[in-house]
Amino acid sequence: MEFKKLEKLANIPPDCSKPSDLYVAGQKWFCSNRSKLSRYENNWIAVFNNELIGYSSNPYELEEKIKAKNLETDEVFIHFLADSNCIF
């Protein structure tokens, strides 16, 4: 199936942007450092510039913390850190 047809089928706009390089870097940092973040389990975390910049059990509170640092939320990797003993 052609990609254009897939876009139409999935209702994806053709100008849909990809994640920023900073977001992808944060995601990679998270994957490499997941084991060091166990004390933040059951919280939302924010990673920017290869460091944890905030965490909260409330995602809206975390968003406010990010904005207080004058950062764009689309450049920050935000993730809910589930309990490592949790089975999905």
Got a strand count? 3
Low-confidence stretches: none
Structural class, from secondary structure content? Answer: alpha+beta
One letter per element, helices H and strands E, the order comes to: HHEEHE
Strand residue percentage? 15-25%
Q: What portion of residues is helical?
A: 25-40%
The rounded Rg comes to 16 Å
- Lateral arrangement of strands in the main beta sheet: 2-1-3
Largest sheet: 3 strands, antiparallel
The best one-word shape is: globular
- Span between N and C termini? 32 Å
- Give the integer mean of the pLDDT values: 86
Number of helices: 3
Structure description:
It is a single chain. The chain has about 90 residues and is an alpha+beta fold. It has a domain at about 20-80. Helices cover about 35% and strands about 20% of the residues. The chain is built from 3 helices and 3 strands. Strands 2-1-3 form a 3-stranded antiparallel β-sheet, sandwiched between helices. The longest helix is centred in the first third of the chain and has 13 residues, at about 20-35. The mean pLDDT is about 85.
What keywords describe this structure?
88 residues; alpha+beta; 3 strands; 35% helix; globular
